[in-house]
Amino acid sequence: xxxxxxxxxxxxxxxxxxxxxxxxxxxxxxxxxxxxxxxxxxxxxxxxxxxxxxxxxxxxxxxxxxxxxxxxxxxxxxxxxxxxxxxxxxxxxxxxxxxxxxxxxxxxxxxxxxxxxxxxxxxxxxxxxxxxxxxxxxxxxxxxxxxxxxxxxxxxxxxxxxxxxxxxxxxxxxxxxxxxxxxxxxxxxxxxxxxxxxxxxxxxxxxxxxxxxxxxxxxxxxxxxxxxxxxxxxxxxxxxxxxxxxxxxxxxxxxxxxxxxxxxxxxxxxxxxxxxxxxxxxxxxxxxxxxxxxxxxxxxxxxxxxxxxxxxxxxxxxxxxxxxxxxxxxxxxxxxxxxxxxxxxxxxxxxxxxxxxxxxxxxxxxxxxxxxxxxxxxxxxxxxxxxxxxxxxxxxxxxxxxxxxxxxxxxxxxxxxxxxxxxxxxxxxxxxxxxxxxxxxxxxxxxxxxxxxxxxxxxxxxxxxxxxxxxxxxxxxxxxxxxxxxxxxxxxxxxxxxxxxxxxxxxxxxxxxxxxxxxxxxxxxxxxxxxxxxx
Length: 535
What we know:
Blueprint: H1 14-34, H2 37-47, E1 51-56, E2 59-64, E3 73-74, H3 98-107, H4 110-113, H5 116-136, E4 152-155, H6 164-167, H7 184-187, H8 207-216, E5 221-222, E6 228-233, H9 237-245, H10 251-266, H11 269-274, E7 279-283, E8 314-317, E9 327-329, H12 341-352, E10 358-364, H13 375-383, E11 389-393, H14 402-410, E12 412-417, H15 426-433, E13 437-440, E14 463-464, H16 467-471, H17 477-482, H18 486-500, H19 519-533
Parallel strand pairs: 4-5, 4-6, 6-7, 7-8, 8-9, 10-11, 10-12, 12-13, 13-14
Antiparallel strand pairs: 1-2, 2-3
Helix pairs in contact: 3-5
Keywords: Glycosyltransferase, Golgi apparatus, Signal-anchor, Transferase, Transmembrane
Pfam families: Exostosin_GT47 (PF03016)
Main location: Golgi
């Protein structure tokens, strides 16, 4: 076992130290005086590689990383003290990284940039929204692929250690459950007969397998690399992380498989041709799990997405890193996997006619180790509201049965969706698929995550309440939601059910949807559009 060691340097005398500081201060002043403001701001951005800025509503949390600290030292507390806070990073690709940031710096007026914390928030939000606009520019204007000419998709036949062998370790992946049951029916899980046709007990981390199965059967799949426009790398990186999380292994062990994959790809002419720019990875866990910063042996996750070789490739994840334009969020897998159009239509009619007897519901659990988390406040308000709000306690096993969650959401007008261990929640998609209007408290839960599947105008499908208002007890959520007019609720629900729902679910492995595009089809069409636009 490696033991970290540090060498202490002798301290200089106070006299020498004082002279050194005086000289440094004078020199620093002269240098700063000669640097134009725009260049100085760009330098500050680069310095963010060793510090961190995270947006939480109207607040910016600035943190500093150090090899001497096990965790980031923050000048203000984040919502999750143990959660690795995102570090803004510039892409190695000049056209999509530094150039965009420079353009933004030039567009922001000096008074705004220099206006303390409010200016920092405005600047950071502008960067994130700029990247979302880039991602939205890749959206295909065609509902379905009418021809596969020039749109070939090549699926790598990777050595089994990168995918199939990981599935084979499912019995030993999570100590308290046999994960293998979730891989039945091509990773959709066991059927949920009570909910009807097309419903399965799908695990939230099943995306990698579901996507792989669908890609293998796509009509535009080609078997000759020279005919391909898009290259899909079916690496089950999420399962790779899960198999080590509950075992005492070194970081080198955690990173081994990802490094071996990169080495394997670098030997391929198809990768060398565009340095992986036309390659796509689908990862079934959140981006932070693949961006380990802390090298302490107890640190969670791998460094897979931090590898230089992967910076030009597209990464599809259930939660994106908002500072990386090539990280694209796609929906969490839900329990609904329609086979044909009628499956969707039947469900749409059922939930639009559902008699919603509860105004508000919340399915979740408290976060006692995270005092800044608002869940406890929401639960108290819900429990004290009488019949207006129903709380399903997930900490006592209340959410283990998907039927209980779906039925609760079908019975509710609004579903509370506060951040948990990370900003996003699978429950957001469960509520939308059930016709329940999600109430969000952090823009990173959905608004800055899914540009291909959710509209830019988030008021069409959700209600937003600033979590700081909740934390300071300035608002009663149930009372606020009671003021939303019934007509407005109905309009939002119709939009959710008829406009959004089909594109938020993944059809089954033999999906024959014709009228509708599901989440997979939308993703593939946009990936092909991106490759064609970037040629």
